[in-house]
Amino acid sequence: MEIIPFVKCPKCNREAQITEVLTAQSNQNVIFLCPYCHYEKRNIETSKG
Q1: Which residues contact 20 (CB under 8 A, 6 or more apart)?
Q2: With CB atoms counted within 10 Å of each terminal CB, which end of the chain scores lower, N or C?
């Protein structure tokens, strides 16, 4: 059984599964979008870029 981690929104502090809130783009940027308060953070730095 695969365990999917949860991510906490920095604005509303609610949690959602990582697959629901993070989107990886082809240019190695990551976008966070909270499904509850719609807080959005773009161009999140990763270890690859």
Answers
A1: 35
A2: N
Q: Which residues of 22-37 are buried (b: 16+ CB within 10 A; e: fewer)?
A: eeeeeeeeeebbbeee
Residue/partner pairs of 9-18 with CB below 8 Å, 24 or more apart: 9/34, 9/36, 9/37, 9/39, 10/39, 10/41, 11/37, 11/39, 12/36, 12/37, 12/39
Confidence (pTM): 0.81
CB of 23 within 8 A of CB of 46?
A: no
Q: What tens digit of pLDDT does each residue of 29-47 get?
A: 899 999 999 999 998 877 7
